[in-house]
Amino acid sequence: PAPVPGEGRLPRQLAGEGGIAIEGVDPKRLPSRSLSAEAEVVIDAGQAWGGIYSFAQDNGDYERGWLLGYNESKFVFWVSTGGAMVEVRSKAGFETGRVYHLVGTFDGKSVRLYIDGVLEGERAAVGEIAYPDAAYYAIGGYRDDDENFPMRGELRSVHLYGEALTPAMVVTRARERGVDVSPDAALPPDLEFAVRPALQFVSPTSARVTWESTAPGGSAVAFGRTRRLGEVARSEKAGGEHSVLLEDLEPGATYYYKVGWTSRGRKKFSPVFEFTTATNFTRPPVPGGGGGGPVADTAAQVLERTGVCKGYALVFGAAERELALELVRASDLNVVLAEADPAEVAGARRYLYERGAHGARATVLHTGGVAGVLPLTSGMVNLLVSRREIPPAEVGRLLVPGRGKAYFLEDGSLVEQPRGEGSGDWTHQYGDAANSAASGEQLSGATASGQFALAWVGRPGADFGIDRQPRMPAPLSADGRLFHQGMNRLVALDAHNGAVLWGLEVPDLRRINLPRDCSNWCADGERLFVAVRDRAWVLEAGTGRRLRTLAVVPRPGQGGGDFHWGYIAREGRMLIGSGVRSEAFYRDFWTSAQWFDGKAGSEGAKKVCSDSLFGYALDRASTGPVWTYRDGLIINPTITAYEGRVYFIETRNRSLADSPGRRLSGAALWQDQFLVALDAATGDKVWERPLDTEDGTVAVYLQAAAGQLLASVSNTQYHLYCFDAASGDPVWQTSVAWPDDHHSGHIQHPVITAGVVYLQPNGIDMGTGEIVTTKVGARSGCHTYVGAGGALLYRGGGRMVSLWDRETETVTNWSRLRPSCWLSTIPASGMLLMPEAGGGCSCGSWMETSVGFIPRVRLGDVVGRGEQP
């Protein structure tokens, strides 16, 4: 097809720093029933509003016209047919400095985006293009009445067509411009990966990249300090699982890498991924070792018998300085050597310093002897080693609850520390798979900030997370391990002492706007389950080693390439998952539009919906699901697992099921709704009930506790609906006002604990729906509440981390400590855990570091003797 006639004769006017912005173009001259915008472009840097070619106005709710452009990481094409823009984004991020051929098409039914001849995305859009009365015909930037954003890069050509190019026409145009579009290139490039890449630091100067390929052939990783890369590390395997080591990495530096492989005689490459060695928390090695000898053999025996090789070890007596050194050399432990004699302390320090261990991996602590209480925080020692007898009470106080072990050299006896009474785990986004927002953690009865002491302070810091924390997944804690997500990365810490156990850089990990979606991970005592694109990774909790992966189950007839793993939960022996179309997830985090605090009608208030629900049996070696459920579209924030069942709200409105979109809002989402209960082990439908609630235009949640289900719906206020979990029969319903309509006041997730539903400022009896208090501590800034034993944990006055005592209804806080914009502080493992997750927010002056607090009653005589805990 020929370009639109007369385009070249339009008057031109330079727009700001670059690009062309033409005024006075009559929108009636532009195509409205069908259109194609084409461009050859090189992007030098991403930006929030990156325009390439457009005739558009985007001013608040007034969105008109069309735009071919890009954001911080991806290409976009959007069209307005009268309402909000319909936008398609590329699946993979663009590489700076590379030439791309782009085509966006509209045919009156759908919007499509092609990159280098390949269809990247498609969304329904019915009607004609709704044009603004006046706009700039912008080339090489985005410009409207109040904004002007020149493109950062090089624009080689643009064309506008009065019809929608067919896929064959797009391929022809791409080939005419030198793009190698072979028949198999029409497949999404992600299909070359059976399992997507992950990077794990293995030393202060090296990292290992692992992935699995679907195609046979050689493979390699190119990496470097710039996107030009430069270094190459080759895999020795030809297909299947791959692992390569990147060496000689500089500290505190940003690196880029991409995976390349040869398939059917053609070289192919992944997108360019990024990582930073600033988040390399591996411990420095200590020279020497490996020569054997009695002391080295003893160290090996201690490590083998106890199975403890990470965290903190406490060794008694300067005479054991050689053993302390060999423990450091043979493990990832940091070793504290305790000694009472000042002369022996000096000698031990000198010995360890001369061998490169002191200050880096070993510390010599001057103590008052082994008979008394050491000035160490309770529950911080993973491994205690002594040749002499230690008072049992002190051994029990020092050891990490649940996994700490003491080894006595004289007789080879072993003492294992049991888990603390009343200790609970935080294994899912809202505490448990039932979404109660509380756990069984009792915190030894502590309900006020003054009843806690600082147990540890450490990593990670603010550079680990996403800027402004746009409501990311909550941290998890199980069996004394704390798991925390950041910017396409995760880390495992010892919950009791903050020691870094392991970390992973995962380019495809990011998921945000959790109030309108569900989390991407859960945990148990042995494993961490992480949804990464089209698979769930089953990771060994103590090491991060990938044990297996499980594939998403797509909707029949629509293939697996466009579906990613959505919901994930552990219920009994089953891992429950859902299939979501890839473009539905929220991933962009920059600009005010990604704050996700909006109300009805905003893009961020749309709910992510799943096409399928399925269950894998974790005690089976089979790679296939035990069951799959498909009927309507399942609203992700309502999926709840509880006592062997899975509950959810779905819409069976066929108009939505037949449309390509799965990030939904509007009246159609709340029509033909059902509340459904499935057997978690078999997928059999236990019951279903037609549901007619208020429209949850702002937020909707489902929770379970005490044999009941609670649906919370927010539009202009909160509407609560309680059902019997066994039958689905309604029990009660009520409505309460928002405390405010901003900073999460209108999207709070309720807490259910001790038979009461807490939703600021109210406490509501779970059995009757009656209000039992109106004095819940008031929030300040974005956050939601967490049940923490006898208190609620939240962001209170002055935006500080606060506790509201449920019995006395009084508030205490920690000054200069601030949680994230959703949920980042959790009670678990007998502690309050606060991994840093608020760095980058505009309300600054906070201590941007991770901390753990311990109830003071667990400190024993340490505080009583005047020592610092």
Extract low-pLDDT stretches.
1-17, 183-191, 862-869
Helix content: under 10%
Strand content of the residues, in percent? 35-45%
Q: Radius of gyration over alpha carbons?
A: 29 Å
N-end to C-end Cα span:
76 Å
Structural class, judged by helices and strands?
mainly beta
Mean pLDDT: 89
Q: Summarize the main sheet.
A: 7 strands, antiparallel
Q: Provide a count of the helices.
A: 7
Question: What is the number of beta strands?
Answer: 62
Shape: globular
List the helices and strands and how they pair.
Layout: E1 20-22, E2 35-43, E3 50-59, E4 62-70, E5 75-79, E6 86-89, E7 99-106, E8 110-115, E9 118-124, E10 137-139, E11 141-143, E12 148-150, E13 153-161, H1 167-176, E14 193-203, E15 206-213, E16 219-224, E17 231-234, E18 240-246, E19 254-263, E20 266-269, E21 273-276, H2 294-306, E22 310-316, H3 321-330, E23 332-339, H4 342-354, E24 362-366, E25 383-386, H5 392-398, E26 405-408, E27 413-416, E28 452-458, E29 476-478, E30 481-485, E31 489-494, E32 500-505, E33 521-523, E34 527-532, E35 535-540, E36 546-551, E37 563-571, E38 574-581, E39 607-610, E40 612-617, E41 627-629, E42 633-635, E43 640-642, E44 645-651, H6 654-657, E45 663-664, E46 673-679, E47 685-691, E48 699-705, E49 708-714, E50 718-724, E51 730-736, E52 751-753, E53 756-759, E54 762-765, E55 771-773, E56 786-788, E57 791-795, E58 801-805, E59 811-814, E60 826-828, E61 831-834, E62 850-855, H7 861-864
Parallel strand pairs: 22-23, 22-25, 23-24, 25-26
Antiparallel strand pairs: 1-10, 2-7, 2-13, 3-4, 3-10, 4-5, 5-6, 7-8, 8-9, 11-12, 14-15, 15-18, 16-17, 16-19, 19-20, 19-21, 26-27, 28-62, 29-30, 30-31, 31-32, 33-34, 34-35, 35-36, 37-38, 38-40, 39-42, 39-45, 40-41, 42-44, 43-44, 44-46, 46-47, 48-49, 49-50, 50-51, 52-53, 53-54, 54-55, 56-57, ...
Helix pairs in contact: 2-3
